[in-house]
C-alpha cells in the first residue's frame, strides 16, 4: 500500500497502478519541516483505507526529473491519480480531518468500481458506476466524477458517452488539454449522437472559457474599476463577464450579461446573449445557475 517511488518506477507504481486503484503521490524532501508532519499522517490515513488507496512517496532530491515534469514548485505537494491521470491534489500540510476526507473520497472511488486490495464483491455495474459519476458531476464534484469516469474507461475504452462526460469534467477542472484529447479521440460519428452531442458542446464551451483564464485573471480588477466608474460601459461589463466566467465566477458573469441585456437586448449584435448561452452550455443544463439564468433571460427577451 505504501512504497518509496523512483523516476524509473513512476509509470509502473503510479500510472499503471492507478488503473486498478487510486494512487496518492506524496512529493517530499528530508529537509522539509511540513513534510515530516504530513508524511506520517498521510501514511496512517492510507493504511486505514484498507488497500483501497495506495501511496507512493517521492523524494524530490533523489528524483528531480519527475518533480520538474509535474511542475512541483513547493513541498509538500500531493497528487492523486486514477485511471492513469491526476484527478486531485493539494499543497502544504492539511489538518488531519481534511487529510482523512481527501483519502476517504479516493477510497470511495475504489469502492464504487469494486477496486482495491481490500474490496469485496464484484462492485456495481457500469450503469450504477455511471450514475454515481453523473451524480458527482451534478453536485460539482468534478474531481470525483473524473476519477470514476476514468476508471470506467479502463474497462470500456470505446464508451463515447463516458468519454464525452469525462471531457466535460476535465474541462471544468481546467484540464483543457486532457479534455480536448478526449474529444479528438471520440469514435467516428459519435459526437453528433443526441445522447452525446450535448456533452461535447458543454466540454467545448468549458474549454473555450478556460482558455481565457490566465489573461482574464490579470484584467479583472481593472475591468471592475471601469464598470464601477461607468455602469453604462457595456464593453467593459462584457469584458468583465468574460473574465469572471473564465476564472470560475459564473454567477457574476451571468449577472453582468443580463444587466447588458436589460438595457440593450441587441447590443453588439447580440454578443451578450451569445456569451450567456456559451456559459450555460459550459455549466450544463442541470446547473442551478443555468436554470435561474435561463428563466431571467426568457423574462427579458419576451417581456
From TrEMBL:
Protein name as annotated: Thioredoxin
Protein keywords: Disulfide bond, Electron transport, Redox-active center, Transport
Organism: Marivibrio halodurans
InterPro entries associated with the record: Thioredoxin (IPR005746), Thioredoxin-like_sf (IPR036249), Thioredoxin_CS (IPR017937), Thioredoxin_domain (IPR013766), TPR-like_helical_dom_sf (IPR011990)
Thioredoxin domain boundaries: 1-108
Any one Gene Ontology cellular component term annotated for this protein: cytosol
Organism lineage string: Bacteria, Pseudomonadati, Pseudomonadota, Alphaproteobacteria, Rhodospirillales
Entry-linked PANTHER family: GEO12009P1
One BP annotation, GO: cell redox homeostasis
Family stated for the protein in its record: Belongs to the thioredoxin family.
GO molecular function: protein-disulfide reductase activity
Amino acid at each position: 500500500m505504501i512504497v518509496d517511488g523512483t523516476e524509473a518506477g513512476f509509470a509502473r507504481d503510479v500510472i499503471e497502478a492507478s488503473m486498478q486503484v487510486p494512487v496518492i503521490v506524496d512529493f517530499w524532501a528530508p529537509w522539509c519541516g511540513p513534510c515530516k508532519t504530513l508524511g506520517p499522517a498521510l501514511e496512517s490515513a492510507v493504511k486505514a483505507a484498507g488497500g483501497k488507496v495506495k501511496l507512493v512517496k517521492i523524494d524530490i532530491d533523489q528524483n528531480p526529473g519527475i518533480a520538474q515534469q509535474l511542475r512541483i514548485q513547493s513541498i509538500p505537494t500531493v497528487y492523486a491519480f486514477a485511471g492513469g491521470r491526476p484527478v486531485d491534489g493539494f499543497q502544504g500540510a492539511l489538518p488531519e480531518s481534511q487529510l482523512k476526507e481527501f483519502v476517504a473520497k479516493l477510497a470511495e472511488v475504489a469502492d464504487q468500481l469494486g477496486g482495491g486490495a481490500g474490496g469485496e464483491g464484484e462492485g456495481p455495474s457500469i450503469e450504477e458506476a455511471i450514475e454515481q459519476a453523473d451524480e458527482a458531476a451534478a453536485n460539482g464534484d468534478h474531481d470525483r466524477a473524473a476519477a470514476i469516469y476514468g476508471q470506467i474507461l479502463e474497462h470500456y475504452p470505446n464508451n463515447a458517452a463516458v468519454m464525452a462526460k469525462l471531457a466535460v469534467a476535465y474541462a471544468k477542472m481546467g484540464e483543457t488539454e486532457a479534455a480536448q484529447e478526449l474529444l479528438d479521440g471520440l469514435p467516428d460519428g459519435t459526437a453528433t449522437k443526441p445522447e452525446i452531442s450535448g456533452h461535447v458542446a458543454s466540454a467545448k464551451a468549458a474549454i473555450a472559457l478556460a482558455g481565457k483564464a490566465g489573461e482574464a485573471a490579470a484584467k479583472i480588477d481593472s475591468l471592475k474599476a471601469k464598470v464601477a466608474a461607468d455602469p453604462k460601459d457595456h464593453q467593459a461589463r462584457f469584458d468583465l463577464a468574460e473574465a469572471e466566467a473564465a476564472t470560475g465566477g459564473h454567477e457574476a458573469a451571468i449577472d453582468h450579461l443580463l444587466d447588458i441585456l436589460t438595457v440593450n437586448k441587441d447590443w453588439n449584435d447580440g454578443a451578450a446573449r451569445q456569451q450567456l448561452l456559451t456559459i450555460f452550455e459550459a455549466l450544463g443544463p442541470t446547473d442551478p445557475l443555468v436554470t435561474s439564468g435561463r428563466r431571467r433571460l426568457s423574462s427579458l427577451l419576451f417581456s
